[in-house]
Write a structure and sequence with these properties.
Elements (H helix, E strand, L loop, with lengths): L2 H13 L1 H7 L5 E2 L1 H14 L9 H5 L2 H8 L5 H12 L17 H6 L1 H13 L2 H9 L15 E5 L6 E4 L2 E5 H10 L3 H19 L9 H26 L7 H7 L3 H21 L10 H8 L5 H13 L3 H5 L5 H12 L11 H14 L4
Parallel strand pairs: 1-2, 2-4
Antiparallel strand pairs: 3-4
Helix pairs in contact: 9-11, 11-12, 12-16, 12-18, 14-16, 14-19, 16-18
Length: 366
């Protein structure tokens, strides 16, 4: 998980969850930040100065306010670089795709297309497209209009998107590139996170120790489970040779199987030790250490591999019924390994016994 994403999620938790609970039944598409961004771009292109440029209209939009409050954006630096890209005297420097030097040039290079895309998002069927891609991976109880997240599009500054607690934040250019290929695909992946992470939180018992080592483990396993299933939504399509991200995704997944098998073996050994003694957590107590030791890329590895094994064994729908339960994900993976001719690593009986204890400790059973 990228540092910027972590920072945004923390700010969202601290400052925005109440306001979103109030707005959840209103419009599901929010392009106000992107529209404000290009309003400023037009003013700069006409030679506008600080006195007549609507910076505060942009910075008061919710996603930018979150990033500013979390020190993810330096507004002085932001203004300076945006002026460099869009002012009358700027040179047209093609830096697409997005980079960390002056990403505003990438938005400028694609400005006309992106402004048309904004109109398409507000007048098209993006919500229906997202639902068509998303809902096969959710149980009916989570396919409710009030649970569908608000889709926010902004000039994020990098090829990223994130979904959490009733919202999805997409980088405008990154989403545009993917939506030209499959409309709503990026948002569908992130909407899965938004809905399932909220369902997971609602299943956790009250008054628990959120900093406890074993809860960190449960939360890490939730990351693995979520990323694994979410990747079933978009990665098979993005791995098609006509995908605009084919080379990037191909490179990202090249060692999936071998890395995942190694990590599953390591995790199984750890769970076995944890079942025998709490001392197992002495070295792996905090979330970051757990995530970096037993997973890669925020849980995509080994989650993506495990989800694929579950799907090929025909057990995906069984897990979807309890989609927010990470222990269910592991149990279905274990069962799937027994239904294939391939020799896949699996979790020992002692590991499964510990995971069931962990679920009983923190999970609200129906």
């Amino acid at each position: 998980m990228h540092k910027k994403r972590l920072r945004l999620l923390n700010i969202f938790l601290l400052t925005c969850i109440i306001s979103f609970s109030q707005d959840i039944n209103k419009h599901k598409i929010n392009t106000s930040a992107a529209q404000a961004y290009f309003k400023i771009a037009h003013e700069l292109e006409k030679g506008g100065n600080n006195e007549n440029i609507s910076w505060q209209i942009l910075f008061k939009t919710l996603p930018y306010k979150m990033m500013i409050d979390g020190n993810a954006i330096d507004t002085i630096d932001f203004k300076s670089k945006m002026k460099q890209a869009f002012s009358l005297t700027s040179n047209n420097v093609n830096t697409s795709p997005l980079n960390d030097i002056n990403y505003h040039h990438a938005y400028k290079d694609n400005q006309k297309e992106l402004e048309i895309y904004i109109k398409q998002l507000n007048t098209g069927n993006i919500v229906d497209s997202v639902k068509n891609l998303l809902y096969p991976y959710l149980p009916m109880r989570l396919q409710k209009p009030e649970l569908f997240p608000i889709l926010i599009y902004m000039n994020y500054g990098s090829a990223e998107a994130t979904g959490f607690g009733g919202i999805v934040i997409n980088d405008l250019l990154h989403s545009y590139i993917i939506d030209k290929f499959k409309f709503g695909l990026l948002s569908a992946h992130e909407a899965f996170h938004s809905i399932v992470s909220s369902a997971f939180q609602q299943k956790i018992k009250k008054n628990i120790g959120y900093d406890d080592s074993d809860f960190n483990l449960l939360y890490f396993l939730e990351n693995v489970s979520e990323e694994g299933i979410a990747d079933l939504i978009d990665k098979p399509l993005l791995l098609q040779t006509n995908s605009p991200l084919y080379n990037q995704v191909k490179q990202m997944t090249v060692n999936d199987d071998s890395l995942s098998k190694t990590l599953i073996y390591k995790l199984d050994n750890f769970l076995t030790l944890a079942n025998q003694s709490e001392k197992a957590f002495q070295e792996f107590g905090d979330f970051t250490t757990l995530a970096n030791t037993f997973g890669k890329n925020g849980g995509h590895i080994p989650g993506r591999f495990m989800a694929d094994v579950i799907k090929r064994a025909g057990l995906l729908q069984n897990h979807i019924d309890t989609i927010e339960d990470p222990i269910s994900f592991i149990l279905h993976y274990n069962n799937a390994t027994k239904m294939t001719e391939e020799k896949y690593p699996f979790f020992s009986n002692e590991s499964i016994l510990y995971l069931q204890k962990l679920r009983n400790k923190y999970w609200v059973m129906n």
